[in-house]
Specification:
The protein has 465 residues and is mostly beta strands. It is 11% helix and 34% strand. It folds into 2 domains: 313 residues, Neuraminidase (6 Propeller), CATH 2.120.10.30; 137 residues, no CATH class. It has 6 helices and 34 strands.
């Protein structure tokens, strides 16, 4: 039951903010898994609940107004310790069925649906003696348009595929190893190498890594490739999404033992960067991570449930490089503003629908008189402290501003403009760069400029003339 929540909000550059930007809500954790679906074909969402302590599955039919009918239960068996539940069509009758993992009985169970909110008794499929299945999913892994089952087993350190032929039972079971003492906790399903076949990502809690098992689309998987999550990290959950807006699959992982969440950026070929971790707070013990656009800004965010602090976190991302303070974007009444770039002189010109034509004609008339050249200064060897910004010569301010505008206009690349206090912070950051990096160290200007993926966010339109 959820009483409290925290959130991590993203900006599309693959980064996350520090813990102080988290919002915290209280949660009471119980061993219950919940899934939602329309189970009786009335157009309203219903709930299916795996009751670990009750050894049953509960069905709560929804009324469409946030309330539900009294729970109807279906037994999974005494001591079965039903752990996880998922919903899908497992017999191609276009009616939702229920799949559960029976952790205590080394099996998965299927309840076939009648389409009216009622279900058959459980059909059991063993997963191996002592396997302790902890998670399962329903997908088509052999491209035959029939739903198959994938199961991760905590105790037997493997992933199994249950493939279905034209008959109802699952006749083929294939096992894929994940490493001795890997103690799998969770998995995610996605195409991470852009071959249109499903791949499996697992959290190897016992070996402090995540594993990638690339799929061939015929019911077989490539040998696991692992990525370290840190000594003592004990990863418990993984999720897949595009966190840096490059249209490639990235991975988020909740590291219970390290009190952090990590991001591994994908290269589109099934390989990933080393992990970048973000703290969730001392003794938070993050146990589960999920991704969605929680603030409707078209960028994926992360929600992390913390077992230790009994909270959920949703965290905002940071912009730019490690040198940069937070900055603002140019918006008027929450609407991004339009700019044009002159291909000839690289001047950035604002426009409005009422004045755009006249303004562009005026600029064209004076374009030949404008000369802009790249700055010849390649490093910063001195600086002005932010505490005395008034002593910064106006000429230097102008040159830095022009250099920044040249950077974002270069080669017609998409851009954003910082403004108000954000623009002031940007300038002062550059002027005190020597202090940031130590007085004896020279700082490359390129290190201070935002990354292109940062300055290309939220552009309405870019025109050339």
């Amino acid at each position: 039951m959820v009483n409290q929540t925290q959130a991590n909000v993203g900006t599309g550059n693959g980064k996350r903010t520090d813990p102080e930007h988290f919002r915290v809500f209280c949660i009471c954790f119980t061993k219950t898994a919940i899934r939602k679906s329309d189970l009786n074909n009335d157009g309203r969402l219903d709930l299916a609940v795996a009751n670990y302590l009750g050894n049953n599955v509960g069905i709560l039919l929804g009324y469409g107004n946030g309330s539900f009918a009294q729970q109807t239960t279906y037994s999974t068996g005494d001591g079965f310790d039903t752990w996880m539940i998922t919903i899908g069509d497992l017999n191609n009758d276009n009616m939702p069925d229920i799949l559960v993992t029976n952790y205590g009985a080394d099996s998965v169970g299927i309840f076939f649906g009648y389409g009216d909110g009622s279900f058959t008794s459980q059909m059991i499929f063993p997963t191996g003696i002592g396997s302790k299945p902890i998670a399962a999913a329903i997908w088509d892994f052999n491209s035959d348009n029939r739903s198959d089952i994938v199961v991760v087993n905590y105790n037997s350190d493997n992933v199994i595929l249950l493939l279905r032929d034209s008959s109802q039972p699952f006749l083929t079971m294939t096992t894929f190893l994940t490493g001795k003492n890997s103690n799998l906790q969770y998995m995610a399903i996605a195409d991470v190498n852009k071959d249109n076949f499903l791949d499996i990502i697992v959290a190897n809690n016992g070996n402090d890594n995540i594993g990638i098992l690339l799929g061939y689309g015929n019911g077989s998987l490539m040998k696991q490739i692992t990525y370290a999550t840190g000594n003592g990290s004990s990863p418990s959950s993984v999720a897949v999404g595009d966190f840096n807006n490059d249209s490639l699959a990235d991975i988020a992982v909740a590291n219970t033992g390290a009190n952090n969440v990590g991001i591994l950026l994908g290269y589109g070929n099934g390989t990933f960067s080393a992990i970048t971790s973000y703290s969730t707070g001392n003794v938070s013990n993050p146990y589960s991570v999920s991704v969605a656009d929680f603030n409707n800004d078209k960028c994926l965010d992360m929600a992390v449930s913390n077992l230790g602090s009994k909270s959920v976190q949703v965290k905002q991302t940071d912009h730019g490089s490690s040198f940069w303070p937070r900055f603002s974007l140019v918006f008027v009444n929450d609407v991004g503003q339009n700019f044009v770039i002159c291909d000839k002189c690289r001047t950035i010109v604002t426009y409005k629908s009422s004045t755009g034509t006249g303004g562009l004609k005026k600029h064209l008339a004076s374009c030949d008189k404008i000369t802009l050249s790249n700055t010849t200064q390649s490093i910063i060897t001195t600086y002005y402290t932010a505490s005395k910004p008034s002593i910064i010569p106006e000429k230097i301010k102008k040159e830095v501003t022009n250099a920044y505008l040249e950077f974002i206009a270069l080669d017609g690349r998409p851009f954003e403009i910082v403004s108000r206090i954000g623009f002031k912070n940007m300038l002062e950051t550059i002027f005190k760069a020597g202090k940031i990096t130590a007085n004896s160290q020279s700082t490359e200007i390129s290190d201070l400029l935002p990354h292109p993926t940062t300055v290309s966010r939220k552009v309405d339109q870019v025109y050339s003339f």
